[in-house]
Structure formats: structure tokens, C-alpha cells
Amino acid sequence: MITTDAPTEDPGKSHVHNVALTRRRTLLAGSVLGGAALLLTGCSEDSGPGGSKKEADAAAEARLRGQAAQDSAALLAHYDATLAAHPGLGERLRPLRAEVARHAAAFGGASPAPSTAPRAGASAAPSASATASAPASPAVPPDEKQARADLASAERRTADARAAALVSAPPELARLLASVAAAGAAHAYLLTEDGA
Fold first, then answer.
1. 93 with 82: CB under 8 angstroms?
2. What angle do CA 82, 99, 178 make, to 5 degrees?
3. What contacts 53, CB < 8 A, 6 or more positions away?
4. Residue 20 and residue 24: Cα distance in Å, rounded?
5. Which residues lie closer than 8 Å to 85 by C-beta, 6 or more apart?
């Protein structure tokens, strides 16, 4: 019988031992790296001078909504000034003005009072509360056709500003901005269209 200095252990047994150690090390390393990744993710969202990412997004959305509400209020003031200067355009402008008022409310603006333009037999003096909260009235041309053209230009500018804001708006607000911009483009068309 020949004897060797070879170990008497089963050669497959040491292989199993090495595999078990490798698996434990892999699991340990994976859990450490996974935990570190979670910590880094948490830090990137919650750190910084402005608070969390959600708070920053909410603030940006509030700014966009506020600007859209201000734009609608300015457009309402333009409609009101035009209606006051040209009461004969009332039938044509009141439905468009009412839609702009709904847009302002959708953006979180104050619910605007109905147009202060005089109607037959009505007083032309607006209430004190209506004049205090309304933006400054724009100058309205004496010619009705030019007044409608100016109002159409204001609608186009507002629609263009809303379309530009789509890029930075969150999805829900972007849909609202797109819808209102499309309505503004339609208003501009209706205002420049000749006839009733």
C-alpha cells in the first residue's frame, strides 16, 4: 500500500466550504451596498436648503398656477375694459369672458365677478370690491374692430405663455395649461373673425 501526504479530507468538501463563504460574502456585500444606495437616495431627495424634492416641485407648480391665474385676471380686465368701452360687443364677448373667468378659477384664482360693463338700464359704476381686486384696465381703442383685434392679441400672448409653461409643468397642470391655451387660440380666432 502506498501512502501519500495527501489530506484525508474529502476534496469536494473544501469546495462546498469555499462556495458557502463566497455566497455569504456576496450577500453581505450586496446588503451593505443596497443599504448605502437607499441612504444615498433618501439623502438626495430630502436634503438641501429647499427641503424635499416634493416640496420643491409643489412650490414650482404653485408658481406656475399663480402666474396662470394672474394672466387670466389680466385677460379678464381686458375683456371688462373692452365691454365697458364698447357695450355693443357684449353679446359677442360675454361668452368668451365667462370662459376666461372659469380658466382663472381653474388655476386657483379668485372667482371673478361678472363683467361690470353696462347693460341696458344698468349703472356703469363697478362695486368697490371689484375695482380693488381687479388689475389695471388696459387702454381700449375707440374703434370696435381694433378693440377686438387688441383683445385677440392679448388672448394669443396668454395662450403662447401657457404653451411655453408646458415644458416645466407637472402632468396634471400641463394638461390644464394645454387645454386653456387651445381655448385661448380659439378665442383669438373668434375675435378676429368678421361677422357675428
1. yes
2. 115
3. 44, 45, 46
4. 6
5. 140, 142, 147
Q: How confident is the model over 17-44, as pLDDT tens digits? A: 555 555 555 544 444 444 433 334 344 4
DSSP 8-state class, residue 143: S
Cα distances from 162 to residues 71, 117, 186, in angstroms, run: 9, 27, 14
Lookup: cell for 48: 438641501
pTM recorded for the entire structure: 0.62
Average pLDDT, the chain: 75
Please report, for residues 62, 79, 156, 164, the alpha-carbon distance to residue 109 in angstroms, rounded to integers and kept in the order given: 11, 16, 20, 20
